[in-house]
Amino acid sequence: MRRLEARELVIDVPGRPAGRALDICVEPGQVWGVLGPNGAGKTTLLHTLAGLRAPRLGEVYLDGHPLAALKRRQVARQLGLIFQERHDGFPATVRETALIGRHPYLSPWQMEGAEELRLAEAALERLDIAHLAERLVSTLSGGERQRLAIATVLTQAPAIWLADEPTNHLDLHHQTATMALLAEQTAEERAVVMCLHDLNLAARWCDHLLLLYPDGEACWGPAEAMLVPEALERLYGQRLATARVNGAPVFVPVR
Ligand SMILES: Nc1ncnc2c1ncn2[C@@H]1O[C@H](COP(=O)(O)OP(=O)(O)OP(=O)(O)O)[C@@H](O)[C@H]1O
């Protein structure tokens, strides 16, 4: 059981007032969506929750321990990260890259074994990129790279996924398949926090939402309480029409 908490957390967005401090507890089995317009601080929040960026105020806790006091290797066994910026280091194949997901569990001199390989192959299969296993990552399309990033975290099997726009670059089918995969993590008491631009994916798949406003204001809670058209219109500065499809609200921008 792993719990990620933000206590009195103010993310450090340069030049912005503190706004509302975040008090959030991500419990095992929950799927959190972070919504907000460009520049609201979604990526900054995710980096702060991952311990990669210091907050301006407050602290992030993993299972009650301050994240900043934990060893990165310990953190890497619990938190899986899908971020937007990726840099190709040395040339690596798709399979080698997926195997990186097992590194937090191996000692520095230990080679990946049959079990690591099995997990990586299963993840590549799940993300429909098994046929690309021998290819160099530098030759992949944007959507294939995105699916590899997800496959790498699936290989890692962390307790908590932190994903920045996980459906970026993905076609409609793979967007849905990715959201299903993330929601599926909850069956094993894992949790997911993801930034999303697509309100309808958030409405369909997230059970908790955090709305981040550009002035630092924020509100959060169960998804149904957050999906209030007036609040969402204020969030995006966009009028919306609402319908219901398959039991979930659907929001369409109106002129
Ligand atoms: N190093 C920096 N120096 C100055 N401003 C920065 C720096 N890093 C981020 N910012 C600013 O902080 C704000 C929040 O950025 P962030 O990337 O977290 O937003 P976001 O909500 O993820 O946006 P988007 O939807 O466009 O991805 C932006 O206005 C950005 O320009």
From TrEMBL:
GO molecular-function term, one example from the UniProt record: ATP binding
Domain of life: Bacteria
Name recorded for this polypeptide: Iron complex transport system ATP-binding protein
Residues of the ABC transporter domain: 4-239
TM stretches of this protein: none
Lineage: Bacteria, Pseudomonadati, Pseudomonadota, Gammaproteobacteria, Oceanospirillales
InterPro entries according to UniProt: AAA+_ATPase (IPR003593), ABC_transporter-like_ATP-bd (IPR003439), ABC_transporter-like_CS (IPR017871), P-loop_NTPase (IPR027417)
PANTHER family reported for this sequence: ABC TRANSPORTER ATP-BINDING PROTEIN (PTHR42794:SF2), HEMIN IMPORT ATP-BINDING PROTEIN HMUV (PTHR42794)
Matches recorded under Pfam families: ABC_tran
SMART domains: AAA (SM00382)
Keyword ATP-binding: yes
Keywords for this protein: ATP-binding, Nucleotide-binding
